[in-house]
Amino acid sequence: MGKKAQKMKSVTKSKTKAHKQKVKSHKKNKISKPKYRTKQRSESQDKYKKPEAPLTDYLAHKSNYIAVRFIFECGIKLGLKHITICSAAVYFHKFYKHVDANTYDNYSIASATLYLASKVHDETARLRDLINVCYHTLHRDAAPLRLAEDYWNFRDSIVHAEMLIMRILQFDTTFDHPHNYFLHYIQTLRPVFYSKHGKDIIVFKKAYDFLHDFYHSSDILQYKAQHIAIACIELAIKVYGIPSQIIDYEIQPWYQALVEDLDKDTLWKAMAAIMDTYDLELTD
């Protein structure tokens, strides 16, 4: 009986070992198949992936248009709000409205306006983070900036530029942004241009793109905030050509119901200024 029991134990052990090996091999096969499938999916997705836009070499450009693009890129990297970045662009345009464009380095001024705008909007960015982001946006392939002479020189340039900007602006950092009126106008017009196919959303997104891009031009200082907001919406309506049965331009333009002091000539001048913004990059 003892020999039979030992034989039974050895048989059961061999069976359990074989079963365990089968389970392991089955698990391996299960894990390997999804990996292969996901790899195939990622390869197919890469084929139809949109090409990324090339990074701007800011040191190769000295125009204020590209400098404002630098402000937006650094502001996004720092996680600042959009209105804060727009304020920095306004301070930049106001500064160069009173000084010669060739006197000061526009990227030092741009970095300083970001730092100033973050303070004005109670969104203070750490100066060291600002320096690192701005430096590596200008020098994309450079090594990390150490606490050495280059760091302290860049830090001093930003601090001194901030004080200079405040004096040039006469310590007036207020600005009436078109964003304050844009959303109100959009909510008012939404029922007028309502579309089951979502075309009204496309129009309003394009209008916001026009508003965002107009901050690259110093002409944004020449028009009222309400007029700029209306001009962006009207330009988007013209671009997509979406008609509305409610609006009749011969009786009264729709925008005069929202802004009484806006006439047709002022509106077309503002729309032309927005469109001229896209020619600034070509003239660099």
CATH classification, class level of the largest domain: Mainly Alpha
Rg (C-alpha, Å): 30 Å
- What amount of the residues lies in strands? under 5%
Distance between the termini: 99 Å
- Work out the helicity level: 55-70%
GO molecular function: cyclin-dependent protein serine/threonine kinase regulator activity
Family: Belongs to the cyclin family. Cyclin-like FAM58 subfamily.
Pfam families: Cyclin_N
Biased composition (Basic and acidic residues): 40-49
Task: Describe the protein's architecture and organization.
By secondary structure, the chain is mainly α. The chain folds into 2 domains: about 65-170, Cyclin A, domain 1, CATH 1.10.472.10; about 180-280, Cyclin A, domain 1, CATH 1.10.472. Helices cover about 65% and strands about 0% of the residues. It has 10 helices and no strands. It has helices at about 1-45, 65-75, 80-100, 105-120, 125-140, 150-170, 180-190, 200-215, 225-240, 265-275. α4 (about 105-120) packs across α6 (about 150-170), α7 (about 180-190) crosses α9 (about 225-240) and α8 packs across α9. It is globular. The N and C termini lie far apart (about 100 Å).
Brief overview:
The protein has 10 helices and no strands. It has 284 residues and is mainly α.
List keywords for this structure.
284 residues; mainly alpha; Cyclin A, domain 1; Cyclin-Q; cyclin; Cyclin-like_sf; Cyclin-like_dom; Cyclin-Q_first_cyclin_box
Please outline the helices and strands.
Elements: H1 2-47, H2 64-77, H3 82-98, H4 106-120, H5 127-138, H6 149-168, H7 179-189, H8 199-214, H9 225-240, H10 264-276
